[in-house]
């Protein structure tokens, strides 16, 4: 689904991504690991249109998507999860989900005055969808809770839920397991697996927790110093001497 070719991202003279090439297969849950500073987040941000690459190419289903802005990629089904922004923390979980799709009739003044029926219908559909998403993620009980009151793990589930409000094809998850307790980590892992198996989502995830990676990801790609160092199953990666050396060197 995604092909990255010889990608470079330089910050001044520093090469954060330094000629990375990789593929993310349709239907896979691909893990991206590597020592701190390896360039994983920068690579994610370039693929997801948050940063412009210095050079190189990103393709999605054969189309050149290099440098396209996030909202264009969003409409192509490529999503990157972000922390719930501060300004949305006073809104409920349900409201946070309902505002994801955008482009609703009620957003223009004209429609707000003259198309009340249509707006009510759209809101009804969105509300139903938001409740389905909350149910899928087993957090229905939190639908009227303000996002700012959620625990770290619950916020991660809500972030994942936001991708379910639109027709995502591929979702980039940045350390979804960081600082999350074991129980919620299992819930998040289950949701990722079900989205992959039942709804055909492709995932690419940066993660440090090797158990979590081992449970979910195949293949696992290892980055070091801005390049792809190795790729394989979790067991192959763990036994790879260059990988062990890269981790020990930090
Ligand atoms: P990782 O996610 O693997 O820990 P990052 O992509 O966050 O790695 O960072 C790779 C390197 O690029 C780090 O040394 C970091 O300090 C540097 N870097 C990242 N973003 C910027 C930036 N905006 N300006 C300058 N250097 C940056």
TrEMBL record:
Signal peptide: none annotated. It comes from the Bacteria. Keywords: ATP-binding, Nucleotide-binding, Transport. It comes from Primorskyibacter sedentarius. GO terms for molecular function: ATP binding; ATP hydrolysis activity. This is Amino acid/amide ABC transporter ATP-binding protein 1 (HAAT family). Residues 2-250 form the ABC transporter domain. InterPro entries: AAA+_ATPase, ABC_AA/LPS_Transport, ABC_transporter-like_ATP-bd, ABC_transporter-like_CS, BCA_ABC_TP_C, P-loop_NTPase. One of its GO terms (cellular component) is plasma membrane. It holds the Pfam family ABC_tran.
